[in-house]
């Protein structure tokens, strides 16, 4: 069992809170002992490899599955137990988009209008016009990027307070991915929308997200605001050695050795006194990779 | 109005890149007192970045007294940055040029010189050898 590391606690109203959350399928825990707290108005990336438990976690959050252990709340209530409190304020974009390929785009909007009392038809039409997606087009004839845009438009037209997206950009080319993130960030700027998105692509998350949850093998390895996460990590490189001395002063997240050299990702802001180590700052992407490449969970004490 | 751009490989945090570009634009006179900065939404939609990042950059510039947020109207440049007279008369530039020529003479190529300058600058400002 891992002690999940929280770099700092949120100070504002909570939008998503998980406490000891777990899900077991048969004898296998898909997700175990997850605890984190995401403030309202934040944009959070849930990162991890395929099979790390990201979809399971999102499905638990939006109430599609029942937890085996612990609980998860959206805007203070459980989506499963108090759906009337949560569902009208929640948008969810599933990985497969749940669009009917035989429907025209206009038909999808009509479905949205009938299912959602707060539906904003003008916003939906304006978004699609700006993207140049014709309302008469059948969903099955749209490109992957356009389908993702229609799915996001449908979720935004609900006027949600929180939007949960499962791998929104996984199947998109870089340009379509950028377009989608633009639209998403524009919506966040407009309404103060809270966003929780899962992704196994981490290259441009740094510009989009202000909070991070790193998931590996069904456990939360790290959570916190991205700028504090970046500030709390350093890369040490030096001659080949066992990191025992360093580990006494600093938490070693991952280590890499060649014949001559040792490279350590450490979580610590303390000074490194041993001058054999070269100390470098490290970007978010490399930090995430460091946690994902951990073989054993980082058992440790929060500094 | 200025247009922000981002260098994702620079290692400089996104909000700080925005701060530096505003300072630079003000220093060069591209932005003058009374000019408006792009709205948060404009920046966000151009760069596909987190709105909180833009807010953080604007708050920092506001704290420095360089810009001022006017409720419901936008963010405006309040003052110029006086470039140092030394840089104006070019003596610092000349000294640097002669140093670069010396470095070239000693066999350093452009990349070596960049790395050395970056390392010394960082050491001078943070007191840390990187």
Automatic annotation (TrEMBL), chain A:
Query: Which CDD domains does the entry mention?
Result: ABC_DR_subfamily_A (cd03230)
Q: Do the record's keywords include tRNA-binding?
A: no
Q: Which GO terms describe its molecular function?
A: ATP binding; ATP hydrolysis activity
- The ABC transporter domain is annotated at 16-242
- What residue stretch is flagged as signal peptide? none
Pfam families membership: ABC_tran (PF00005)
**Record's keyword annotation contains Magnesium:** no
Family matches, as InterPro entries:
AAA+_ATPase (IPR003593), ABC_transporter-like_ATP-bd (IPR003439), ABC_Transporter_VariousFunc (IPR051782), P-loop_NTPase (IPR027417)
List, alphabetically, the SUPFAM superfamilies matched: P-loop containing nucleoside triphosphate hydrolases
Q: Which PROSITE patterns match?
A: ABC_TRANSPORTER_2 (PS50893)
| Keywords assigned | ATP-binding, Nucleotide-binding, Transport
Task: Give the domain of life.
Answer: Bacteria
Instruction: Write down what this protein is called.
Output: ABC transporter ATP-binding protein
Organism field: Frankia nepalensis
TrEMBL record, chain B:
Q: Which Gene3D superfamilies match?
A: Winged helix-like DNA-binding domain superfamily/Winged helix DNA-binding domain
One Pfam family matching this protein: GntR
GO molecular function (one) = DNA binding
Question: SMART domains attached here?
Answer: HTH_GNTR
What keywords are annotated for this sequence in UniProt?
Answer: DNA-binding, Transcription, Transcription regulation
Q: Which residues form the HTH gntR-type domain?
A: 12-80
Q: Which domain of life is it from?
A: Bacteria
Q: Which PANTHER family match?
A: GNTR-FAMILY TRANSCRIPTIONAL REGULATOR, HTH-TYPE TRANSCRIPTIONAL REPRESSOR YTRA
Protein name stated in the entry: GntR family transcriptional regulator
